[in-house]
Structure formats: structure tokens, C-alpha cells
Amino acid sequence: VTVYADGAELVYEFSALARDMERDLESHDALDLARLVELPGQTVTRSATTSILRESIRPDDLSRAEVSGRMRQRIERAYGDVALTVDERDQLLAIAAAPRTPGEEAWKLFWERWDLLQKAHAQELVNDDAFARRKAELIGELRR
């Protein structure tokens, strides 16, 4: 692995992730024996001979990456609790994975409003059409 800074990113360039000692050590087939898995705030690119992991070393990007990771978990929990449809989950995961995901306060406000809307619908204070329309509006507001 070669590690270096590239602007505001730390770059890990792997020429091999795992090697089979029985094979020729010069073979680049070794990359197929393991796979890098990116975490929030990281990107992985692969070629025939290298795998490159990049992550931001700027504090604001790191905090956004942490928020993104927490929000992905929250989205999956809400989906598991049937508080989100598949389409809503996919839209929210895309927002959470975006390079400029909303900050923690925006997500907090979103979830407060989402939960309140869910409760109002469960108590039949909001009809199905208004419920669907308002959920779409909340997701749209989060995108801005």
C-alpha cells in the first residue's frame, strides 16, 4: 500500500489486498482475493492492478460522513419498522450518500416532522392523499 495526501483527501493505493503465497508474488491477480468496502465519506475505485481508497481529511467532511453513516442506519431501521416505503428508503439513502448530505440539524428536523406526520396519519388526522403528498414534500425539502 502507498499512502499519500491529495489535496484534502488521504489516498490509500493498494497494489495487493491479499496474496496467495503459492502464486507468483508479481501476479496482480491477488487483488481478487479481497475487496475494499467503503465507509461513509470514503470512495473506492478499482482497476486491474490497484484498488484506491480515498477519504477526506477535512473536519467538516468527516462530520458529514459520520452523519451520513448514522442516517443510513436510521433509514434502514425506519424501513424495517415499515415507516418507509422502498421508494422512500431509496430516495433517503441517496440523499444520505450524496457528497453534500444535509447536516445533522436538517436530518433531525426531517425525522421530527416525519415521525409527527406518521403519528397524525395513524390517528387518522391526515388522509392518505395528504399523507403521501406531505411525505414527498419532506423528502424534497431535505434535498435542498
Number of strands: 4
How do the SSEs run, as a string of H and E? Answer: EEEEHHHH
Biggest sheet strand order reads 1-2-4-3
Low-pLDDT runs of 5+ residues are none
List keywords for this structure.
single chain, 144 residues, 4-stranded antiparallel sheet, 4 strands, 15% strand, elongated
What can you tell me about this protein's structure?
The protein is of the alpha+beta class and 144 residues long. The chain has a four-stranded antiparallel sheet with strand order 1-2-4-3. 48% of the residues lie in helices and 15% in strands. The longest helix is centred in the middle third of the chain and has 22 residues.
Topology, element by element:
Blueprint: E1 2-6, E2 9-14, E3 42-46, E4 51-56, H1 59-80, H2 86-97, H3 104-122, H4 128-143
Antiparallel strand pairs: 1-2, 2-4, 3-4
